[in-house]
Amino acid sequence: MTASLVAAGTVAALAVNAPAARADTGSVYTSSSPLPAGQNGDVVKSQPSTYNGAKATRIQYLSRDNKDKQVAVSGTVLVPDNPWNGPGERPIVAYAPFTFGMGPDCAPSKTLAGEGASDMVSGFQGGFVNALLGAGFAVAQTDYIGPWVEGSGDHPYVIRLSEAHTVLDVIRAAQRLPGTGLPADGPVGIAGYSEGGSAAAAAAELAATYAPELDVKGVYSGAPPADKAALSKSLDGGMYFGFLGYALIGINQAYPEAKLMNLANPTGAELFLKARQTCTLNAVFQFMYKQSGSLTKDGKPVSSYLSQPPFDAIVAENRIGTVKPTMPVMVEQSPMDDVIPAAVGKQMAKDWCGKGANVQWKDLASFTPLFSHALGMMTAPNDAAEWLKAAFKGQAGSGNCGRF
């Protein structure tokens, strides 16, 4: 749930050696049915892409949704043109993008290459990627599951299991992609902010069981929307109501058995259909300040449903902070965050501390409550890159649990 681009727009305008990649048989955004046989992280297709300062390759790879069904996912692998000057082999960092939207043209693997719905969103995504490349890391960027790959359905926005799987599997895909010079079992890291912060945090929790062969040295999680129940209240009626709409689309995609759309009145059903076609800026400006109670048949807000079956179980399954990460993690957020309450990210970090994890909490520099979530993206990328540099050197420290 990121508003980085929104703020900028508003301010500006106002170890496994796996099989080699299969032969390219068309766009990475088309998939066959059934999918080809393969393991999680196997590369199905690859195509040259473009990105200044790096060799870029667009990929389609295999991953799993929240129901453990195998799916095709798109993304990009970027290797800096400059040689790696650090110790050991060049690290791979999975970049988990922040909110980019729901429409087929919104995918970061398109916008990073100057295609699709390129706007300020892609500029901010590029800023995070540039910080990681500038540190000398190879970057494995996932698009998550979504309609950019034909037949994949809606994007399961901020759904814990599917986003963790796609983040971990894009690292595997980068390790298995021929012609990159990247090690098949070298050091890796994960970084993301906002939606990407929760995806990175979820990957930190699942890495030991879902991808135990990965040598994850550290995970950076910025402003993570770790508790969906809290966000259903904080976003309702506010400027960033569109993100709540995205979350409902995500629930409907990931849990069709919950029959979420049965709760919507005609206005709610219309908003749902419109939001499915938007990228982030459009969603924010179209839906700001809407009240979810005006979209339901009985006039109740969304938050009232999330405390009742079957949605209470869905909220619980998607809460982050319940599993101890086995690697050092940094959690960073502005104390004045105007989109995701800082208490949400801090509680996740405290929950991890209570389980004995190595957690570093840091207040993200902010100078005003206005657009503080978005403006955090001005410093988060460099903070992530610097902390991961230390983690790759074995200098992540012992954290600051009990002191925040």
Automatic annotation (TrEMBL):
PANTHER family: LIPASE 5, PTHR34853
Residue span of region Disordered: 25-49
Lineage of the organism: Bacteria, Bacillati, Actinomycetota, Actinomycetes, Pseudonocardiales
UniProt GO MF annotations: triacylglycerol lipase activity
Gene3D superfamilies: 1.10.260.130, alpha/beta hydrolase
Name of this protein: Lipase
Cleavable signal peptide: 1-23
Keywords: Signal
Gene Ontology biological-process annotations: lipid catabolic process
Organism encoding this protein: Amycolatopsis orientalis
SUPFAM superfamilies for this protein: alpha/beta-Hydrolases
Highest taxon above the source species: Bacteria
Pfam families: LIP (PF03583)
Keyword Signal: yes
Keyword Signal appears in the UniProt entry: yes
